[in-house]
Design a protein that fits this description.
The protein is built from 14 helices and no strands. It has 328 residues and is mainly α. The chain starts with a helix and ends with a helix. It is a multi-pass membrane protein.
Length: 328
């Protein structure tokens, strides 16, 4: 009898396996589909490498967006934060000479431009976090306002012009496999934050039941501030990678980037109902966005239709998530 029960408990559950790794099967399916449709060109090593490099900024920000959505919030300002940080970091990474954004600024060590970029991102994220934590403004409204303000500041600082002539030491950050290495390191670090720290446990607790979290002594306001500051910092890292890769800072960077970030996060299994989300799922979701972007581009599909496809994916992911919650 006990042997039978033991076998029953250890029996491989095919249905559970498919539900757990369905997102991975979807990724593989898209890769196979686009490989067939492009007659093998999609699966070329260089194309796959470029794909991951292109989505690195999306993946980096998605690691933070995950916390916002787990706690039933959202950050619509990440694209504008990228633009704002981009022009700040580029201003301090410029080589001395005519046309510099800050006249008379001597050549600065690379770490100075990186530090200024991170501070700028933390400033934006911290401001959003304060609006949510102190003034109790809903995340949607707070980040919508910051989305407009941050891009406005980026254009004011640069008069709407790109900031170029950046130091080679800085632009090297965005070349080769460096963006991929940065993404992987941050994914590992954020996995640790979400799964092995008190802050991470508090994120899931607030998302699962905010009232119960308050009763247990968790400061919801303080954690909201931390979450949106963290998102600002990750958006700053993404901006640094994007600026270095394009060898220019630009106030137009990040337009509609929040759409890709939210899509990657949601299709990666992070629930708008709160309390659910994994780093590995978000990373697979990021790769799916990259595969769709590159695959549709190689097939000559208009960028406008690509936006329609991504919008449909978000809606589908939410419908699936709602059905899962009803079953629970």
């Amino acid at each position: 009898m006990s042997d039978t029960a033991s076998v029953s408990r250890t029996k491989f559950d095919v249905g559970e396996f498919i539900r757990t790794y369905s997102i991975l099967f979807i990724l593989i399916g898209f890769v196979i589909l686009f490989t067939i449709l492009t007659e093998g060109r999609f699966f070329a090593t260089q194309n796959l490498m470029n794909l991951v490099v292109q989505v690195a900024p999306i993946g980096i920000i998605s690691l933070g967006m995950m916390a916002a959505i787990i706690t039933k919030g959202i950050d619509l300002s990440v694209g504008s934060t990228v633009a704002f940080v981009s022009v700040i970091v580029a201003a301090f990474a410029q080589r001395p000479g005519a046309g510099t954004l800050i006249p008379g600024l001597p050549a600065m060590p690379i770490f100075v431009s990186l530090l200024m970029g991170l501070l700028a991102g933390a400033l934006v994220g911290g401001t959003v976090g304060s609006l949510i934590a102190i003034f109790k403004i809903p995340p949607f409204i707070a980040t919508l306002g910051m989305m407009t303000a941050a891009r406005g500041f980026a254009n004011i600082i640069t008069n709407g012009r790109p900031v170029s002539n950046l130091a080679p030491g800085f632009t090297a950050i965005g070349q080769g496999v460096t963006p991929i290495i940065i993404l992987v390191l941050l994914a590992v670090a954020m996995w640790f934050v979400y799964n092995r720290t008190r802050f991470g446990r508090h994120i899931y607790a607030i998302g699962g039941n905010e009232m119960a979290a308050k009763v247990s002594g968790i400061s919801v306001a303080k954690n909201h501030f931390k979450i949106y500051t963290m998102i600002g910092l990750l958006a700053a890292v993404a901006a640094i990678v994007l600026t270095a890769r394009n060898t220019t800072g630009n106030p137009s960077f990040g337009v509609m980037l929040e759409l890709d970030v939210i899509t990657a996060t949601v299709i990666g299994g992070t629930s708008f109902n709160g309390g659910v989300g994994t780093v590995w799922g978000v990373m697979v979701g990021t790769l799916i966005i990259g595969v769709i972007n590159v695959g549709l581009t190689m097939l000559g599909v208009s960028p406008f239709w690509q936006m329609v496809v991504k919008g449909a994916i978000i809606i589908l992911a939410i419908i699936i998530d709602e059905r899962k919650n009803r079953r629970r």
